Amino acid sequence: MQLKIAILAGDGIGPEVTNEAVRVLESVAATFGHELTLHKKDVGGAALTSSGDPLPQETLQTCLASGAVLLGAVGGPAFDNVSKDLRPERGLLRLRKELGAFANLRPAVCFPALEDCSPLRPEVVRGTDILIVRELLGGVYFGEPRRTEGAPGNRVAIDTMRYSEPEIERIARVGFEMAKSRKRKVTSVDKANVLDSSRLWREVVTRVAREYPEVRLRHTYVDSAAMALVSHPTDFDVLLTENMFGDILSDQAGAIVGSIGVLGSASIGGPVALYEPIHGSAPDIAGKGIANPLGAILSIAMMLRHSFQLNVEADFVESAVGAVLDAGNRTRDLAKAGQTAISTSEMGRKVAVAVKENARRKVAS
Questions:
Q1: pLDDT at res. 150
Q2: Which of 118, 182, 321, 322 has an alpha carbon 20 to 30 Å from 294's alpha carbon atom?
Q3: Quick one: 112 exposed, middle or buried, by C-beta within 10 A (0-12, 13-18, 19+)?
Q4: Rounded mean pLDDT, 268-288
């Protein structure tokens, strides 16, 4: 199979973790006989520096012509003072919108080898396997009007949280469809006791749920969901939520399972899907070779599964990550006292080797 992929390394640790994801992808291609076509383009701060635009037209066209997009990370303090329309993050938001990627899938799985990395007791976090389904193109991040007005010292900032019934309905369907192949439980998160948009959210999700009688629906407020995530994380299966709530809760879920560095994501729904680790650009550790590439590598597994329907290959990548962690390998964010941390590139190399070794053992058996 030909895998045509746009590679947008971006800023901060983005290039480092993306390099290792590509290394694992090349291992998969070599092991299973696929042909890779990779097109590397700038995005975010890197693109702003080179072209004056955080999402150049050339980058966008390359993405739209690809089978999938792998993104590293965008942003950093060097770009804090640029105009709001040119900030690296605006480029990412534009990219998601242009790709039509309205559904963000963020798995939070506790690997057995990382139970001791969680701030929760092992018996609390053990078996955690959550899929956060986050609406990605609506809510306060995209709502209009949005502006700051008034004289200095008396300014007013306005952001608008807005959702339409069709937007809620389409993300709800994604959540229920995902739940059908899991534990068949959906927890819908809102703030319906305060927000009109959340009351509409709850009404539409309830209506869509009637089409999925095999899936159990539970509603909860976002503050209650945040509390339950740290007290009973294994109670969750699919967590369905709007844009901002999902942004916050998915980072919390990353801490629960040991490190935000092990979480990948898939942004789907349009003709081309976008895959990225959720950890951000982490400029304080960029260039030091200590970033955790597993989030980017697990994003590759999601790419293989969702964009190319290569489920076996995706399983091999996830199994390779588990095997490398079981062997005691840790990057700095995962290493405990007395454990030696390995570099970004060494972690990527070990996963790439594990993919090939697992395939050889499979053939031999």
A1: 96
A2: 182
A3: exposed
A4: 95
For residue 131, pLDDT over 90 is answered with yes
Residue 56: is the preceding peptide bond cis (ω within 30°)?
Answer: no
Residue 61 to residue 58: CA distance in whole angstroms: 5
Minimal CA–CA distance to 174: which of 131, 232, 111? 131
Give the model's confidence band at 120: pLDDT under 50 very low, under 70 low, under 90 confident, else very high: very high
Active site residue 191: yes
Tell whether the torsion through CA atoms of 304, 308, 311 and 312 is positive or negative: negative
Confirm whether 85 is a catalytic residue: no
Q: In the annotation, is 185 catalytic?
A: no
Q: Which domains does the chain have, with CATH numbers?
A: 1-102+269-365 (3.40.718.10), 109-258 (3.40.718.10)
298-336: pLDDT as tens digits: 999 999 999 999 999 999 999 999 999 999 999 999 998
* Annotated catalytic residue, options 129, 159, 185, 251: 251
Instruction: Please tell me which residue in 141, 163, 212, 275 is annotated as part of the active site.
Output: 141
Pick the catalytic residue from 41, 247, 333, 350: 247
247 is catalytic: yes
Contact (Cβ atoms closer than 8 angstroms) between residue 58 and residue 265: no
Per-residue pLDDT reduced to its tens digit, 10-30: 999 999 999 999 999 999 999
Q: Which amino acid type is present at position 60?
A: L
Q: In terms of residues, how long is the chain?
A: 365
Cα 160 off chain centre by:
24
Angle between helices 294-306 and 14-32 (to 10 degrees): 50
